[in-house]
């Protein structure tokens, strides 16, 4: 059984907190990411973290250039370059991703205010190719950069900006930056830039920016995974050694500039409830105070029983949500408190209450327990993340780029562990007890910054940008003899840990596999019985949501406190096809965690107070979701695609009446009916052996018994009936993007489809390099990304397209998707080359699927649910290799049709409706309140 927590008393205050804090400090001392380092003569810094457990390598190149280095009038250049450097170099022309994704790599990049990062997570045999490609774009990019490439990627970036600006609260970032920083401040503009500056970008500017910043002496290369130091040194020298050094970046001289007086403003936005914002300028991660402010943030709004949520959301019921964020750049940061006001509450009253809470916090001090809980949450969460070499490599890179040391994480952890209530409050008062920026966001029209006019697709007058003639060849990067792209050997089959099976003394079957990257154990306990078994009854959903909110006489606050101090992730949930209880625990706390699971399964409280709070929060979420495009498209399209689908009531939003009807009697009846050993099964992944785990499993879960007999489950009978093809357009005036969803029913069930269909789906729509995404993103640059995939369900599966696109291209996007469907099913079927690339990607990426405990748990759960053999996960590559081209095209034709589609669009009907006539489909226009009525 779990050890009881000590209840603090006047004579014995916080004994368990002190013990937990000591355990965490000892744990911190054991956290380590070993690495070697060297520097090439041209200044390229290299870090190597060797881990041969999985045949994969992270290749990460970080450049010391971010948005703070951009000249006036050229905001967004660093991020634009992130995209340009994925569009080919002199020896790797065209799409940069395909040579790596086709061999199983994951490729991406990111830009922030301080640095730009590019990474590839690739099979070991592709390391030569990845390093060749990174060196080619570092030393041989400009010769491949032309106006067409600039225009294409400018369009992609502007669609990414539209995605961000589509958020109802996007204006908040614009206004807070303007209030906290003067226009010329290095951190005073967004990373993605303005539409005006992006439109003005020309080739001369872009080439000059590259020459100024993208040199080896401004870069850090991190190799993490299946590569040792001698191999790394040889390959890095081979590919990067000849690239000359360039000008060294100069870091701007920046310090936090707190406001001299409080600034208060009001703005309107397409939100459903008022939003109150309080923001301060604070230090970045190069200042120790930044990490103390992380602790302040977590004490105010961390964990499941934080101070502001407890007082303002649960007790006073003034806000739907309250959040706190300490956003830290390298040199400066912003500390922000944001609250969404509950419907019917005067925002002035809510704001005054929030301000009182802030003042009371600054005048008082938290107890040691709150500080210890933060320390435990962060430390155990950080340690969990280190099971993946990508996280370990990224941690080394981030420390080096922002704090000047790969080991910075160690010092950061020690800063967190050293905090006391007194030290925390000293820093809180230093930075937060001073003037601030106050913003009230009221429901109303969207406000578009002047420099972003026309972002929604409406007509604006854009000053002509003169065409720039290409520079003479002598001014481009010196061309050398072309270098061939290194070949990549065929991948080996992925290893999968041996599966062991046993059965607990109460009959619960257990599947186990070993995963030894970190000292944690993950246990997933699944239950038969779903919402499909009780159509229209919301009790089972709330029953699972409340399982961990009170049990064995312990209230929610006590349970949450205990989970956090012990480093436990423990919760229950229900999906479309099963319910589950999941425990992820440090090995040192595993017995305590399993004891809590047992108590949850034997004696849940289902308290009236917890139920009423959960119901209120559910209704609040419904109110906030009324203008969400994803919510509106789901509401509109679900009954049109398959009107009788048993999933519709689960996927569409509940009503306040449905939620209000849930009661304690229903919860207890649902619990008695479905939470039984006979319905349970367990999968376990741990660094401990099954023999070590069995004793603790037996004395906690194994002796759980329930009286009575199970009731038979009534079969669900459903025969999908395809809907009538057509379009429903949901008018959302002021929208920035058009959100499009298209669906059709398909005959496949919920079991894993033939490998041929998986590969066919990747070619058509379910990968970055798919036909649909390359057409709409790269060729047309009408969207930042769009995908199509199978949604496999037991009772009626569907194939879906989703994309956020330019509003003035909504009609053409649908036309292009229909054309792609017709072509792949008829005159342009999947080719041998496309199938070979999809196979290579699946084969090369197989090892990464089993590199984490979550990946292994998922594979075990598939074996459990579908009755597969224990060798099934390890045989994935053999199944893919056996697929033929004929099978691939036949599999797709058996599922899809271009003329059975139903479409839903959310956006500005005034812009979108005229485009739809050319599609020759019936169109229905409706308002947002018709799709999801107000409460």
UniProtKB/TrEMBL annotation:
Residues 474-494 are annotated as: Disordered. Pfam families: Peptidase_M16, Peptidase_M16_C. The keyword Hydrolase applies. It comes from the Bacteria. SUPFAM superfamilies: LuxS/MPP-like metallohydrolase. Keywords: Hydrolase, Metalloprotease, Protease, Zinc. This is Insulinase family protein.
């Amino acid at each position: 059984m779990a050890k009881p927590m000590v209840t603090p008393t006047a004579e014995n205050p916080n004994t368990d907190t002190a013990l937990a804090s000591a355990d965490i400090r000892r744990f911190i001392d054991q956290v380590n990411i070993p690495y070697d380092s060297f520097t090439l003569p041209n200044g390229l810094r290299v870090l190597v973290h060797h881990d041969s457990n999985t045949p994969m390598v992270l290749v990460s190149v970080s450049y010391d250039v971010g948005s703070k280095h951009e000249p006036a009038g050229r905001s967004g250049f660093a991020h634009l370059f992130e995209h340009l450097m994925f569009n080919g170099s002199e020896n790797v022309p065209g799409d940069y991703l395909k040579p790596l994704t086709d061999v199983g790599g994951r490729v991406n990049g990111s830009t922030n205010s301080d640095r730009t990062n590019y990474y590839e997570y690739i099979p070991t045999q592709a390391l030569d190719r990845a390093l060749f490609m990174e060196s080619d774009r570092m030393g041989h990019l400009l010769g491949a950069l032309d106006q067409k490439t600039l225009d294409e990627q400018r369009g992609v970036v502007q669609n990414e900006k539209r995605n961000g600006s589509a958020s109802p609260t996007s204006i908040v970032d614009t206004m807070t930056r303007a209030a906290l920083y003067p226009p010329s401040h290095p951190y005073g503009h967004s990373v993605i830039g303005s539409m005006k500056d992006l439109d003005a970008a020309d080739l001369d500017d872009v080439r000059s920016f590259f020459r100024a910043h993208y040199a080896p002496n401004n870069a850090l290369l991190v190799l993490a995974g299946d590569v040792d130091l001698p191999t790394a040194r040889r390959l890095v020298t081979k590919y990067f050694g000849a690239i000359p050094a360039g000008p060294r970046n100069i870091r701007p001289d920046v310090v936090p500039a707190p406001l001299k007086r409080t600034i208060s403003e009001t703005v309107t936005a397409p939100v459903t409830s008022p939003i109150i914002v309080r923001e301060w300028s604070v230090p970045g991660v190069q200042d120790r105070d930044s990490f103390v402010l992380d602790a302040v943030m977590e004490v105010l709004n961390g964990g499941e029983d934080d101070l502001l949520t407890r007082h303002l959301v649960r007790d006073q019921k003034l806000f739907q949500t309250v959040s706190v964020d300490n956003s830290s750049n390298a040199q400066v940061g912003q500390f922000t408190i944001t609250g969404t006001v509950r419907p019917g509450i005067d925002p002035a009253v809510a704001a005054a209450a929030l301000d009182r809470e802030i003042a009371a916090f600054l005048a008082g001090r938290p107890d040691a327990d709150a500080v210890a809980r933060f320390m435990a949450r962060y430390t155990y969460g950080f340690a969990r993340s280190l099971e993946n070499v990508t996280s370990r490599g990224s941690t080394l890179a981030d420390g080096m780029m922002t704090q000047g040391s790969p080991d910075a994480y160690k010092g950061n952890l020690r800063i967190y562990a050293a905090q006391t209530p007194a030290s925390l409050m000293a820093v809180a008062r230093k930075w937060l007890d001073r003037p601030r920026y106050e913003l009230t966001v009221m429901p109303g029209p969207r406000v578009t910054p002047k420099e972003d006019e026309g972002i929604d697709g409406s007509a604006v007058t854009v000053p002509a940008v003169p065409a720039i003639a290409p520079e003479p060849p002598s001014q481009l990067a010196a061309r050398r003899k072309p270098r061939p792209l290194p070949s990549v050997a065929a991948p080996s089959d992925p290893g999968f840990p041996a599966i062991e099976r046993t059965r607990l003394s109460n009959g619960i079957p257990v599947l186990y596999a070993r995963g030894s990257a970190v000292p944690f154990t993950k246990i997933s306990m699944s239950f038969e019985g779903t919402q499909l078994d009780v159509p229209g009854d919301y009790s089972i959903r709330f029953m699972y949501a409340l399982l961990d909110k009170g049990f064995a006489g312990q209230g929610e606050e006590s349970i949450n406190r205990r989970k956090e101090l012990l480093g436990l992730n423990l919760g229950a949930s229900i999906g479309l096809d099963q319910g589950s209880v999941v425990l992820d625990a440090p090995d040192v706390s595993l017995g305590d965690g399993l004891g809590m699971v047992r108590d949850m399964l034997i004696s849940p409280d289902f308290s009236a107070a917890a139920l009423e709070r959960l119901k209120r929060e559910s209704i609040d979420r419904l109110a906030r979701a009324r203008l969400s495009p994803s919510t509106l498209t789901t509401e509109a399209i679900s009954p049109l695609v398959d009107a009788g689908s048993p999933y519709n009531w689960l996927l569409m939003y509940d009503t306040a009446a449905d939620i209000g009807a849930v009661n304690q009697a229903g919860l207890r009846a649902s619990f008695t009916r479905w939470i039984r050993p006979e319905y349970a099964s367990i999968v376990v992944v741990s660094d401990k052996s099954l023999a070590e785990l069995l004793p603790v499993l037996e004395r906690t879960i194994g002796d759980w018994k329930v009286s009575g007999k199970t009731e038979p489950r009534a079969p669900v009978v459903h025969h999908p009936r395809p809907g009538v093809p057509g379009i429903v357009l949901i008018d959302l005036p002021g929208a920035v993007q058009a959100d499009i969803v298209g669906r059709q029913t398909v005959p496949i069930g919920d079991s894993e489809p033939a490998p041929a269909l998986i590969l066919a789906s990747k070619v058509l729509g379910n990968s970055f390099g798919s036909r649909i995404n390359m057409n709409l993103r790269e060729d047309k640059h009408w969207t930042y990304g769009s995908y199509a995939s199978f949604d496999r369900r037991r009772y009626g599966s569907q194939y879906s397209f989703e994309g956020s696109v330019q509003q003035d291209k909504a009609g053409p996007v649908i036309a292009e998707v229909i054309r792609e469907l017709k072509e792949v099913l008829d005159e342009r079927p999947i080719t041998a080359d496309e199938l070979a690339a999809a196979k290579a990607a699946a084969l090369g990426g197989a090892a990464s699927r089993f590199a984490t405990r979550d990946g292994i748990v998922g594979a075990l759960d598939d074996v459990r649910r579908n009755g597969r053999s224990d060798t099934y996960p390890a045989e994935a590559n053999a199944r893919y290799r056996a697929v033929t081209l004929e099978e691939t095209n036949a599999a797709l034709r058996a599922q899809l049709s271009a003329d059975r589609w139903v479409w839903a669009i959310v956006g500005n009907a005034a812009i979108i409706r005229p485009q739809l006539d050319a599609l020759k489909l019936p169109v229905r226009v409706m308002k947002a309140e018709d799709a999801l009525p107000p409460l």
